[in-house]
Amino acid sequence: MKNLLLRGLTGVLYVILITGSILLNRYTFAGLFSILLFFCLREFYGLLNTHKKVHISTVYNSAGGVLLFVSAGLYASGAFPSAVFAVYLLYLVGLWVSGLYTKPSDPLVHTAYVLLGQCYIALPFALLNFLVFPDCLSSGTYYPLFLLSLFVFIWLSDTGAFVVGMLWGKHRLFPRISPKKSWEGFFGGLFFTVASSFIFAYYEPVIPYHHWIGIAVWVVIFGTWGDLVESLIKRTLGIKDSGSALPGHGGFLDRIDSLLLAVYAAVIYVQVIIQN
Predict the structure, then answer these.
(1) Chain centroid to CA 261
(2) 3-class DSSP assignment, residue 172
(3) Global pTM exceeds 0.90
(4) Which DSSP letter does residue 37 get?
(5) Measured between alpha carbons, how far is 50 from 52 in angstroms, rounded to an integer?
(6) What is the pLDDT of residue 136?
(7) Whole-angstrom distance, CA of residue 111 vs CA of residue 108
(8) How many alpha carbons lie under 13 Å from residue 52 in its C-beta half-sphere?
(9) Interval 117-153: pLDDT, tens
(10) Which of 11, 123, 130, 203 has fewest C-beta within 10 Å?
(11) Cα 221 to the chain's mean position, in Å?
(12) Average per-residue pLDDT for the chain
């Protein structure tokens, strides 16, 4: 019971912080998500250091990922031209050159693992900026609803899948990677997520309801893949949770695993389908 209460309290606090930072303004969004990204990358690189016996600088390379996120925000908001990414490109150059001086035992593996963290975690976070500054509305205007819907859809999909799967789940979705997930749970999560999309359509009629449904469906599919990909990574590393920073929930990556692929679906839908 104590663990359940602790898990519930942590979950509520997480939802409040994420929702509040998104809705308040662009600065609270940028601040909280920069911090979240830093700790996600630090956690990921720490896992690789422990289980793959490499020596990645967790602080330096986590800060590099934050640099990509901030650069993308400045570009997406129209505050700076594409030249703002030059600093991040210098970080990437430094990553390759550093192998000449630090002399890691296997420089290719070391560099590959660092780039894996940048692609797997930092790039999806950077793309979040193109949801809060969507060109399909007005360039440079902070618009939190797409990003908020992304998180709400993920949360409802996870919750619906858990409840429906626990009650009626019989057919395994992907037993090799996650034996507890079921097709019944997947469609249960999809139902609750699509139902919630009508609420967003009601409060934002400028975006037609069928687009909100489209985003919801894409987020559920890609979010499920994101969850499974993180499960694959944890199985490869031989661990149950990515960390213990969040009581009752595991690590930071355990909380944002679905987001890391779902953001691609949301950005593609908003920037390509809705905008055109």
Answers:
(1) 7
(2) strand
(3) yes
(4) H
(5) 6
(6) 52
(7) 5
(8) 21
(9) 999 999 999 999 999 998 755 567 899 999 999 999 9
(10) 203
(11) 14
(12) 90
- Using DSSP's 3-state secondary structure scheme, residue 246 falls into strand
Residue with tokens 């600065």: 27
Report the alpha-carbon distance of residue 127 to residue 236 in Å, rounded. Answer: 27
Q: What angle do helix axes 58-76 and 26-51 make, rounded to 10 degrees?
A: 150
Q: Is the pLDDT of residue 42 over 90?
A: yes
Amino acid at 11: G
Q: 174 has which bridge partners?
A: 178
User: Cα angle at 129 between 126 and 133, to 5 degrees?
Assistant: 160
Own/partner pairs for 85-94, CB < 8 Å, 24+ apart? 88/64, 91/64, 91/67
| Contact of 18 with 32, CB cutoff 8 Å | yes
Assess contact for 41 and 117: CB atoms under 8 A: yes
Task: Report the largest interatomic distance among the alpha carbons of the chain, rounded to a whole angstrom.
Answer: 58
d(CA 170, CA 181): 9
User: Quick one: which of 271, 255, 163, 164 has its CA closest to 218?
Assistant: 271
Residue listed under structure tokens 């987001």? 259
Greater confidence (116 vs 11) lies with 116
